[in-house]
């Protein structure tokens, strides 16, 4: 069974593995132990280092990287794995950061990952992405809170009437109360509408993650449900499919509709993705989708309801 991901540059990745015995051993043992795949690493200088490989789940979720390093003052190389969505140490160590673990021995490194429940899986990674999904669903539900605001003079006049210090309210008081109540009813109606829309989304939705890694844009597609807008109330299926283009996905027609809408709304450079949507937390009522993000490293997530009502 090959350890090279279907999303890799096969020839380049094979060359990296062939030219670094220690990295090749690391890659094979890591992938066979945790069911992952590898592909070439592309750095910010558009170069492909021969001591590092990216790691992915079998279905294509980006996990992090494995590499061979030599710490300053040491004479031997060591193994290091970086998994920002999986490893969350309280503090850095001498040779690794908070999202990394290192060891001179693979058995020790793997034992540490298993002990700390840092095994890379779709389910573990998708839990991290609930943040931007929460922002998207929050925009569906979010409406301005309904309340009534009255001037101090009007409040005093009302209090005087209630306490029977006066026989009737002034005309300007009743006019202000009527206007404030009308505004309240309008806000309350929008708030109720937001709640209904959220409940419709929450029954079931498709979710698409627009991810960008080293200049490579790809799309993660899965489904979910929700019982609220907190992370623990959002339930995402761990079965995720990765596509290089939305045209290859089951949501190709929906993506085309959204793209047509967005091209008429936003400058071309705003949405450099198949949806042509900007990176923002927003509910687009015209096309009934919502978007959310919490940083470029976590992607832009598009939430699409399964139910029309």
Strand content: 15-25%
Outline the low-pLDDT stretches.
Answer: none
Helix proportion range:
25-40%
Domain count: the total is: 3
> What is the helix/strand order?
HHEEEEEHHHHHEEEEHEEE
Q: How many helices does DSSP assign?
A: 8
Number of strands: 12
Q: Could you give the distance between the termini?
A: 46 Å
Radius of gyration, CA atoms, in whole angstroms: 27 Å
Major β-sheet annotation: 7 strands, antiparallel
Q: Which structural class should the secondary elements be placed in? A: alpha+beta
Kindly report the average pLDDT value.
Answer: 89
Describe the structure.
- It is built from eight helices and twelve strands.
- It has 309 residues and is α+β, with helices and mostly antiparallel strands.
- The protein has three domains: 10-125, Metal Transport, Frataxin, Chain A (2-Layer Sandwich); 129-141 and 202-305, no CATH class; 152-196, no CATH class.
- α5 (130-141) packs across α7 (171-202) and α6 (152-162) packs across α7.
- The longest helix has 32 residues, at 171-202.
- The two termini are 46 Å apart.
- The mean pLDDT is 89.
In brief:
The chain has helices at 10-18, 21-34, 106-115, 122-128, 130-141, 152-162, 171-202, 252-263, and strands spanning 36-40, 52-57, 62-69, 78-82, 100-103, 205-213, 216-226, 234-236, 241-243, 282-284, 289-293, 300-305. The protein is α+β, with helices and mostly antiparallel strands and 309 residues long.
Quick tags:
3 domains; 22% strand; 309 residues; elongated; 7-stranded antiparallel β-sheet; alpha+beta; 12 strands; Metal Transport, Frataxin, Chain A; 5-stranded antiparallel β-sheet; 8 helices
